[in-house]
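Q: I'm writing up a methods section and want to include an example of the input and output format. Could you take the sequence below and give the corresponding predicted structure tokens, formatted cleanly so I can copy it straight into the document?
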Amino acid sequence: MKTLGVLLCLVFLAAAETGPAAVPAAGPSPTVVPVAAPATVPVPAAAPAAVPVPATAAHVFYVSIARVKWNADDARLDISVRIFTDDLEEAIVAKGGPRLRLWTDQAHADRDRHVSAYLASRLAFRVNGVDRQLTYAGMEDALDATACLVQITGVGRVETIEVENRILIEMFDTQANVMRFEIAGEKKYVNLSKKTVTGTVRFGT
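A: Here is the clean output for your methods example:
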């Protein structure tokens, strides 16, 4: 369940800087301005009754965060795609796959194959005008999300990257797929959605 809400989304973005285990650095301490307390504080006679919140209310937004980083030494693009685990599992079930029960002691034995197949059906890259194949490299637990790891090998230079990202758009009308690129010190972002599933970034210009 998306119990962390928007805070989790911010954690995703911060973690994309250094990997799944990164923690955002603390900023400068805010300036505290003392404010005089009121002379009296009215106290209500009785607190209002709590209003129950449906479990589905936590699902207020749908987002994946992809980090694409060029490893120049190994001539490789390393790609990490963070997807809410419950949404990823529902998408695989909707395609006729089993319920994977990721990150539990009942996880499906063939979970990697199903996750790899889903990514291959929803994510495509063209580097320097050439369609490139994704190589699945595993997945990691990332709070309420799953970090899916893929690679594109044999990338000795990067001038343009064209990406098509259809992750979860068949499931949720408001799905947003954020792409973050880091190539030779340049950082760029592309925001994709159901209305716009493709984007292009250029580097060194």
